[in-house]
């Protein structure tokens, strides 16, 4: 049966639309069909509506995906496009991540008008962030810094920064690059210095498990190195349950045909960190991540959850 139309569901932010357009472009190249046959449908999520509290206070990452996944299950859309770092460890029954686009730069970026590096921030500088991970990592490196909650999309946060509400913030390099805002980066933070969010920089395409024809099409645009790295990182998340509000970070990469992973969890104040490293075959990606997660759980015990 020929697919007559594809409806892509996404959040309504400028970055989310850009990412959905990237998925559309890949599908058009694979299917060679009229662009008018692929629609982008914006969906307001709970995470987009509630902007005055941190995600950890109101329920976690799933708040950016719940309504989109419900629309997918109900048949209101055919595909969902997600920033993979926003997805909880477990995908709802009946849905699958069918493919991933090539990963953009996974690093965090320092964005600041007063410094070009974290070390260069003046003592007591005010950093805007609502990421428990970023705050814990910064507190570990710079316990003298001060913090304030900083929600909103990329454009909103940049506007607040330029208005002088804070001295600095951290954003994902990937989002800034996709929005054409690379010039806003004071400095990228190397993964060796500060591990990013799990799956940061990766765009995932989710669909119903029984949509075999669509799944076959998405498989054509799936980037296997990205899929391998993300499977490992999400394995780490899965082992740590994902519902825990503890700061979690990690990064996997392929080096000379081997998969190399480093992951960590921290106490919210950054005073303690629990790290695990693994190396193995790409075919064992998820197991590698899960094994690293189990080590962190053993080391951290009840401190972490």
Description:
With 305 residues, the protein is an alpha/beta fold. It contains 10 helices and 13 strands. The chain has helices at residues 14-31, 46-49, 55-58, 66-73, 132-141, 154-162, 173-178, 212-221, 224-239, 285-300, and strands spanning 6-10, 38-42, 79-83, 95-100, 108-112, 126-128, 146-148, 168-172, 187-189, 203-208, 248-255, 258-266, 273-280. The strands form 3 sheets. Strands 2-1-3-10-4 form a 5-stranded mixed β-sheet, with helices on both faces. A 5-stranded mixed β-sheet has the order 7-6-8-5-9. The chain has a 3-stranded antiparallel β-sheet with strand order 11-12-13. Strand 11 (248-255) and strand 12 (258-266) form a beta hairpin. The mean pLDDT is 92.
Strand content is 15-25%
Lateral arrangement of strands in the main beta sheet: 2-1-3-10-4
Unreliable residue stretches: none
Q: How many extended strands?
A: 13
The ordered string of helix (H) and strand (E) elements is EHEHHHEEEEHEHEHEEHHEEEH
The averaged pLDDT comes out at 92
